[in-house]
Design brief:
407 residues, Rossmann fold, formyl-coa transferase, domain 3, three-stranded antiparallel β-sheet, 16 helices
């Protein structure tokens, strides 16, 4: 392996999405990632289907699409660490690993002697990354946390959905588990920072991420809108609280998104729209004025956009340098020439299906590019090989562990 992290070994005890997402990123960057799963059942997401991956005959395999989204470039080792033999194997692996990822409830691994303080004694250079719903302290520390509830509790759903008074108004979650994804990204950043510190000081550390912390941190400008005014922002549908026009508009055959970011772009848009006078109207000449007068401007724009198709608007506005775009479904996304040119769909060999589709990593590194080494593993696919290579167990010992349900 020649990836940027090809010298790093990760022990991934996490499941579902936030932790596995971090593990997949580290694996994409070259790390050896060992995924620890429960014998017989494995990661919860293996069963979160349909849909399931289909084999060459078009029949469903046992691999759920959800699981396949976050587990490439990993090896699967089934291990019951509630049993003493399983705990002993984890400790043996920790001695040879650089990073451990886990997303159990606060204190959940301490009962098995697998908490940070216990494992730090075995490997002082260990980077131990814990992901929980609410963190290790505070009144909610013992609660379980799931993406959907955190989107609500953390304020995101107060900002997402149609405005009050409109048809279909009310809170709406984001269409993907965005808080989990963002937590996985922040966890990766934290691990990389801790690895860099270890290079300088020679010691590991505990990295802690909480879904709620991440969700609040990612409220970004909306959080600052509240903190600077004391007024909670409201749902605005697809409109932007600070920029106008910055939303969807109807066309002759669908919709278009306008993202006019400055006054120069608005002037160009007004010219393309056949309404150059808008750019000189005191109500619309500046973004500040347009925000104040959005209730007047937006209906005027809607009356204009319906007379051309989405493709006609996109062509005309792109030529004028006005940011815009269509609203694509996923079939259109993966058929888009830019998405195809960037190679965002890759296929990897798979032992059950022949090949498995994957969404490519967006990271582009000139010297150490992302590598697609192995498809998301079958449950326990690498158990014997890993136990022999890293723990030094004999075939007979491995057979005994399998018979006793440890692996």
């Amino acid at each position: 392996m020649s990836g940027a992290l090809s010298h790093i070994r990760v022990l991934d005890l996490s499941r579902v999405l936030a932790g596995p997402w971090a593990g997949q990123i580290l694996g994409d960057l070259g790390a050896e990632v060992i995924k620890i799963e429960r014998p017989r059942t494995g990661d919860d997401t293996r069963h979160w289907g349909p849909p399931y991956l289909k084999d060459a005959q078009g029949e469903n395999t046992s691999e759920a699409a959800y699981y396949l989204s976050a587990n490439r470039n990993k090896q699967s080792l089934t291990l019951d660490f509630t049993q003493p033999e399983g705990q002993r194997i984890i400790r043996d692996l920790v001695a040879k690993c650089d990073v451990l990822l886990e997303n159990f409830k606060v204190g959940g691994l301490a009962a098995y002697g697998l908490d940070y303080e216990s494992l730090k004694a075995i490997n002082p250079r260990l980077i131990y990354c814990s992901i929980t719903g609410f963190g290790s302290d505070g009144p909610y520390a013992q609660r379980a946390g799931y993406d959907f509830m955190i989107q609500g509790l953390g304020g995101l759903m107060s900002l997402t959905g149609r405005a009050e008074g409109e048809e279909g108004a009310g809170p709406v979650k984001v269409g993907v588990a965005l808080t989990d994804i963002l937590t996985g990204l922040y966890a990766t950043v934290g691990v990389l920072a801790a690895l860099n510190h270890r290079e300088q000081k020679g010691v590991g550390q505990h990295v802690e991420l909480a879904l709620l912390d991440v969700q609040v941190a990612c409220l970004a400008n909306q959080a600052m809108n509240y903190l600077t005014t004391g007024v909670p922002p409201k749902r605005m549908g697809n409109a932007h609280p600070n920029i106008v026009p910055y939303q969807d508009f109807p066309t002759a055959d669908g919709d278009i998104i306008l993202t006019v970011g400055n006054d120069g772009q608005f002037r160009k848009f007004a010219e393309v729209a056949g309404r150059p006078e808008w750019a000189d109207d005191p109500r619309f000449a500046s973004n500040k004025a347009r925000v104040a007068h959005r209730q007047e401007l937006v209906p005027m724009i809607r009356q204009v956009t319906v007379f051309r198709t989405t493709a006609e608007w996109v062509a005309a506005l792109e030529q004028a340098g006005v940011p815009c775009g269509p609203i694509n479904d996923l079939a259109q996304v993966f058929a888009d020439p830019q998405v195809q040119a960037r190679g965002m769909h890759v296929d990897m060999p798979h032992s059950l299906a022949g090949s498995v589709p994957q969404v490519a990593s967006p990271i582009r590194l000139s010297e150490t590019p992302v590598e697609y080494r192995s498809a998301p593993p079958l449950l326990g696919e690498h158990s014997e090989a890993l136990l022999q290579r890293l723990v030094g167990l004999s075939f007979e010992k491995i057979l005994s562990l399998r018979q006793s349900g440890v692996i």
